[in-house]
Amino acid sequence: MISEISLQLFVLNALLFCTVILILVSALCFKNHNKQGTNSIATLMLAGAAYSIAYFFELQSSDVFSATMWLNFQLSVIYLLPAIWLIFVLQYTGKSNSLKAPVVIAIFLVPVISMVMLSTNHIHYMFYYDLTIKSLNGLYIIDFQRGTWGYFHIIYLNLFLLAGTLLLFNEYRKSTGYYKKNYMILLVGAFFPWIALIINLLNKNPYSIDMGPFGIFIASMFFGYGIFYYKIFDPLPVVRSQIFNEMTDGIVLVDGQNRITDINRTAVDLFGNEVCIKGQPLGNLFKPFQILNGKNVGDVEHIECFSETEGHKKWIDIRSSCIKSKNGEHTGKLFIFRDITEKKTIEQKLHDNELWLRLILKNVPAVIFRCCNDPDWTMEFLDDKIEELTGYRSVDFINSTTRPYSSIIHPDDKEFVKQSIQKAIDANIFYDIEYRVITSDGSIKWVGERGKVNPKNMIDGTIFDITDKVKVRNVQKNEILLKEIHHRVKNNLQVISSLINLEKRNLNDELLEAVLTRSQTRIRSMSIAHEKLYEADDYANINMPDYVKQISDYLIQLYKQNENVMVHVNVENVNLGIDTATPVGLLLNEMITNSLKHAYPSQKSGNIYIGFRSVDDSYVFTVSDDGIGLPENIDPKKSNSLGLKLISMLTQQLHGNLHINRTRGTKFTINFKKNIE
């Protein structure tokens, strides 16, 4: 049998101990007030401490007034406990959004009414009545009968405790792994106040001692254990669940046997409900991906893989890390799956664009560059085609590692290039210049450069080889100059012919006049050659049909006494250079003149035939008439006739052979090679 003193000391000390522990747990929770739910659980523990200390004083109250005062205070605190408990559970399970003002008012409505009813109980006795005090081993035990509101409040108390507990149990059922333990700790802690309440209601409490403070004390031990060792508020399971499911990456947790223990919503959306089942092998997720190459799925640390299922193409980045226990044992793995399809698509587009750009750079007939706006034109980017242009590699110029670009510009052009570029930069316009560069083998090339300074004060532009263009341009200039020379030579020859014509008017000597006339015809034949060159598109060649016709027409017009002589021209469409055409024209002049003057005495009618054709590698030039014929005793090489001597000399100049046929008139045939020029 327990002595009076020992029971009194045990119960009172136990209540004091419970009060202190509850206050400490409350303080610990308030210390972490920035975490969801900690303020509510701290308030709950503080209310439990008030409940315990009120009961401590109640057991020592021997008079009705003191006992009633402490009983009312104790009951007021008890009325708040279920409301605070329900608010804590709502916060801890992630339902804080439901705690709007009307809901909070509804939760605390019954406790407030109960406090009012309690303070006026001496009027209506609806809470309790027939209060008596009995002494038990030095303790004063209050006994009373519950009224209508007292029973209603007990129902309310049980409903709120049950509601909070069921909410916790529901989250416990849905949670996994580490967070399942958190809910288990809270559920076990909540179980002991229930036991204390049931013991009190069934009057099974020894010595009629209220078990409520001790039930709350044991609950606080579990809560404190969870706070210290399992960090049950860091973060809340619902917060973790929300973060876990709202992550843009797929997260999969597996155990040591590579079985799925947890999986977030993103992973389910990524792989599908049919394979995202807890307890299933991780390998089921990898079946669409033909990338493991015989590896164990658990050995994958980082890999990018491609999948095409039901027409859907996906690229997935897979990373994993080991999960270890506190003692370092391998307990599972964390897999992170990231959909990188868009990234891969962009990378492929960038790759395609790079290939396309490289193809353009390769086929553009210019060197593309970007350089600094400095005296050396330090290259930041330079197309590889610079090597084809200058013989130097592009890397030689990049950042002036080997040589600055300015070093290959011709010294005479550097100042021009510098001033031209600077002028364009100052005006913020494109520049377009031509200058010379010295290649690696010492040769000189002409280049064109076009560019413009960009907002970063860098020059972007192109360089292209214009050496051939410059050569053509120079040739065109020479052609124009040569045409002008031919024009001037023709004019000068015409002036000479005109001067001779003036001299002829003052002569009375027919022989001398004839000599001057022959000289005029020769000058005219040369003048026609230069005239044809001046008029032609190709300064180097004379069209023979036009040339022959113009000379023959001129001679017929000159020797009008031979109006009955017809000239027949059969000349192939052949072009000759001036070095060949001039002697041919002089030969034609001498032969036609000879026929017109000597072949047809007494103004006899006749025909002159002119032929020019190409035969293999030679030309065949013929002039014939049907006149009286050249006497047999006349040899052009030995003749005193200037005209025949010229025919012989001009044939030699052409490196040709002269043949004279004297039957039925006279026929001059000259053969000469095509390549004499």
TrEMBL record:
PROSITE patterns: HIS_KIN, PAC, PAS. Gene3D superfamilies: Histidine kinase-like ATPase, C-terminal domain, PAS domain. It catalyses: ATP + protein L-histidine = ADP + protein N-phospho-L-histidine. Coiled coil: none annotated. The chain crosses the membrane at residues 6-30, 37-57, 69-90, 102-128, 148-170, 182-202, 214-233. Keywords: ATP-binding, Kinase, Membrane, Nucleotide-binding, Phosphoprotein, Transferase, Transmembrane, Transmembrane helix, Virulence. NCBIfam families: sensory_box. This is histidine kinase. It comes from Methanosalsum zhilinae (strain DSM 4017 / NBRC 107636 / OCM 62 / WeN5) (Methanohalophilus zhilinae).
